[in-house]
Amino acid sequence: MNAKNFTAFATRKRIRERDNSPDMFAAADEDEDVISSDKDEETKQDSKKSLICKTPSKDLTKLRPSSKSYLQSQQSSREQSPKQNILLSSSVQHHNNNNQSMLSSDSKVLGDCSMSSLRSTLNTNHFGLNSRMKEALHYGGLNNTRIECSSRSSSGETPPIYTLNNSNILPSQTSIHCGPHYGLSVGVWQAIQQTKGINSLYNWQDICLNKAIKTNQNLLYSLPTSGGKTLVAEILMVRELLCNQKHCLFVMPYVSIVQEKIRTLSSLAIALNFAVEEYAGNRGSYPPRKRKSKRVIYIATLEKANGIVNSLLELGRLNEIGLVVVDEIHIVGEGKRGATLETLLCKLLLAPVGPRLVAMSATIGNIDELSNFLKAEIYTEDFRPVQLREFIKTGDQVLEVSGRQRGFQENFKHCRSLSSPSAESRKNDPDGISVLVSEVAPEHCCLVFCSTKKNCESVAKLISSNLSPNLLQWKTAEKLKLRRALEQESGRLCPILKSTLPFGIAYHHSGLTADERQLIEEAFSSGTLCCLCCTSTLAAGVNLPARRVILRSPYIGNTRLTRARYQQMIGRAGRAGFDTHGESFMIVKPNELTFVTNDILMAPTNRVDSQLAEDNLRGLQQLLLSLISLDLGGRDRKTLAETLLHSTLLGQQSTRQTITATELVDQGLKSMAEKNLILFGKDEKLEVTKLGRATLKGIVDLDRSKQLYNDLRLAQAGLVLMTKLHLMYLVTPYDMVGTVMPIASTYFQSFNKLSAEELGVARTIGINETVMVKLMSNQQPKIERSVLERFYLTLMLNDLFKGESVWNVSELYGCTRGDVQNLLSSASSFASCVFHFVQELDEFWAFSDLLLPFSRELSMCCTAELIPLMELPSVGKGRARMLFKAGFRTLTDVAKTNPEELVSRVDHLPKRSALQMIAAAKVLVYEKADALREEADSLLELVPRPQPLVPLDETFQTQASNVSLLDD
Fold first, then answer.
1. Contact by Cβ (8 Å): 227, 385
2. Which part of the chain is the Helicase C-terminal domain (predicted)?
């Protein structure tokens, strides 16, 4: 055997002996109990292996000026201690020159040192185990970190990303107090500062965080819009991930906000080596993948979060989540989605080993009731990072809101008179909106909130026609790139945007596609656009602050503006780090001043009321079904009534609302039994039927579950697989029926274009030539109206699936582009729900294999080469096509590029968005790699290690030990 083979053979044997040997650090653990006794065997083995040093790092005293004195003080304490133990970790550098036995785990093993000599070394001239651990945590892996600390630039661009070796940040077992910065190490804290572009926290954030860490209780905190609430939650989540080694669930109200948060957290995820997973639309799987190493933040909509919690409770895995953060908790008082959120929170509170809850919101009128429901401590503060000045414009007079008192004089102070400069301008723009915009544009941004979508478009045209032609010279190149990007996104450009974009003006509402809205939002954030005319939904969606906010009227549609919605909209005025103040102007007619004063300015803060008992007890039934199925609140009437009374917001408000829990439970159970969702078993014990379990698993509306079941049974008897049309009809959402009214001529035209196989699907559903003829002759066909309208939506989906543009489909079927895309995303999401629904029903086994890939196909609706790029958050067909044409064909291509190259090759991609896109691509690539690695490890664990065919004799072992392991 030659020396090289001899070395390799000896190395392999030593590794086997090391892996099978007793704990070589037993002596170090005698004096200091690091690994808890209740830890399972697998975690113990991982903890032992983590003690082996991987790569000697640079001297910590060379990394930070403050670390030198710290280490010197620790060195003094070491010299005075007669016997201390050592934690071998790559985040702590040994200063003893004799410590040369620590070699790289990739290419070296623990040389010739015997167990006795190793223990002797461990017990001489080193830190104690706890001291070394604390030092490692304090300096948080700085040895493998590229630190580039800088304050946020005035341009608002995200600073460069750097990475930390997570294995050096924390060992697998630590105390919750594991660092000097709110429980976080110096390195971790610098990563947060760098990726978030901050130098320090606001005073209220510091107080709130210290209180949250000290008590470790559920927390409810409330501040005005733009107060910096989210950063507190993110710091608490990072602490949970790194210190407690638990996953986190971040619950957000809308898909757009989920996608924005995925983008903004990706940089921090890379820096600190944790994962982020999107649960919105058709994305996310139940239950979440079980992970062995990396911690994860699940960012989910209300409905998806409900599915995550259900699946984890069912499998007994909820203890994997240590913290649940709920953004915009006041949504618990808003209709059907509020009932869904209350159901989710109730289950978390009732779980045997439930996670900690942190909820945040704008100002709430009945925060005490909400805190009692959540069993949470309260923190409130009336804080804004920049001053907000409120104005009312009535006629030509501008009045500043100076108080919240009874009477006109006490509330308003006259500031100035404002009118249009010319008679023609006054005629076209009597409210002077253009003048208010021109006072800040184009150097600063302005939001104009309008009451309707149509009004947004007309106001955008009005403003652009009255602004100075000088604005045409502002960022001309950037506007041209934006126009090209919008054209590539949808195939053509809206005529209104074509005329307003040169002035830096655009409209923003649900009639645009999500991809168009994102491009416009990015342009507004980067300063390419200086004014957006938008609906009130923008105030509740993505964060787009501006110097000035203008409310076109005190109405939303035909409904009077509420105080809560008013505060939400004006809260967008003023950008921390950019503006010294923010301004809001509400345009009011003279006869509306009294209503504005009493119902908006002086109105009490809005209350949050439970929605469980609303809408024929729909929310209550959803809660009861969950509690019975998961065995959380009992399985009899009496216990369920007690649960309702003591563990829900509805119960907290029962006295005020004169609600009887027993009566409500009885009504809810009776309705559920009629829908075949539950059964009354022996001793009046309640049991969930198969249909009930399928309804719960698929997150299907309780009132629609029986209809879905019947539709699937009917389809199963004659399922047509020669075309995707039949599956498309089955996943067309029931709640979208009625949103688009059928046009008879379009219906007839689209029906006649169907292939023979597709006509067979239509006839199976009950729509044939006779039905079409009656439609064209204005007669009512003998078929349910809901079926007729639903198939009309299916035809829209079919055209999109075949490659028709959103523009063509919207024009043909008589709806907006946003309606078309909303239908597509809703159908994709509902397909995912139906997939989970049929998984619980054995009779529908065939649909399981069909629906999972179809849901993905439907969500993409694009050519195969664009599918990988569309995995990126908020990347639609248009931007995926631009990336593909620019040479970025895969996620890896995006992940390995740099922001400058991406910006130069893709039209209208701001650097901030490029940084976020690259970070998101890296997260997805790492996620795929981690999944494959863990799958491979799981397979290898099932296979025993191979043993040598011929055992080594003693002479051979001695010779092997004398060969240098560094020889190659």
1. yes
2. 432-628
